[in-house]
Amino acid sequence: MLMPFPQGRKIYKPTLWALFGDETVDLASFVAHDPDNYLVFLRKKIPWYRLDKILREQCGYSETKGRRAISTQMMLGIHIFKYLNNLSDREAIREFTCNPFVQYLCGRQTMEFKPPFTRQSMIGFRKRFEGGEEVLNRILGEVLAVAGLRSVDVEQIIIDSTCFEKNVRFPTDVRLIERAISYVWKFRKKYGVRMRRAYRKEMKKLSRTVRFDGRSKGNREAVEAAKARIRAILGILLRDFTRKYQGQKISLSQEDLQMLTRCGVVQAQVKGSRNKIYSLHEPQVVCVAKNKAGKKYEFGTKVTLAISKAGLIVGCVPFMHNPNDSKTVEAVVRNAEKVTGFKTVEAVGDRGYRQPKGAKDILGGRVRISIPEAGGANTPEEKAAAREKFGRRASIEPRIEHVKDDHRARRNYLHGRCGDVFNAMFSCIAFDLKKLVSWHEEEVRKKERRNMAAA
Question: Looking at the domain covering 147-168+285-440, what would its CATH class be?
């Protein structure tokens, strides 16, 4: 039988610090045992000084005003590691604590067993990019410069549009209306507004009818009537709440007033309405029709990507709305030229990029648009060249899937329009850095094979 500890005696809990005693671990000496590690390579390759200068100029970093900010290399490094490995904020912080190579990437000199930042620090860092799409484009340009991008690589780019989905529930009219009603109940309690009726008992019955009674064909009329009644209840609650809080001269916060306006839009929108709201807490979400067997619609941000001959992403444009593909060409070409600093001669896309009135060029005839069309080639040589070009165009499809699956673009968990832009741009930055790392690892393998052959 184990004897209990005496009262007042402290239980000894060994820590990682106890393993090293009073000595500190020098990271430069530690990583010297594995100089070919990809994080060591990125620490040496990324131009931290130029990135720090960009952030200080455009994101409000200051050495004299307010509390001293966490270093730009640390915050950029942890986000690069996060998107390279498709991790959440918590998982990235856990890896920072356990992995000395991550700390070396973030600019640490000695090993630290407690992270000098929190999830709130990472959220605050991302908020610095609000309205700062230009800053993210400049960071992407610095990464491409490190990769050794040449002007000949950008003369012909491959473009395609996709949807980076948002972390929202699949929207239906009844779900949105029920969510709006719950917000009205919340505001009623928050501001102490006395309303004639809350309709809680009736809503419970109607929700059960819509959910379970629609399975049999004979109850469809009852289900449609229940849906109409739920919409009418939302209208009654909105009018009653608005009349009461205005009569009592209660001032609502700006956020609550915006949410109340969105609830009114949800109550009024029907099939065929324009500028629909698909999520009350993420009103900027758009619906992109994919017409695919597995998923007909996607809800998120429409993004157009441009890829160079070397397979690097040289342009990324997140759109606020859902424009037709043919209207996104000029924006993505201008973005690619601005990011890389080189001129583009030809943009290759699918048939969705066919220009109005059959135009074959944009930007005053400077950039040619190439899409697969019947009868475009006459001689066997022209047909072979067209087949090679448009066969290469299809290579953008798997790259988009790699960006989504490997670099946290399959589901966007960041809030607001700023989160949409940041997630899309950093996914592309991580994709280019991973490409750079793969080239480096291939060179390392070639070097090892040469050494083995020489031995």
Answer: alpha beta
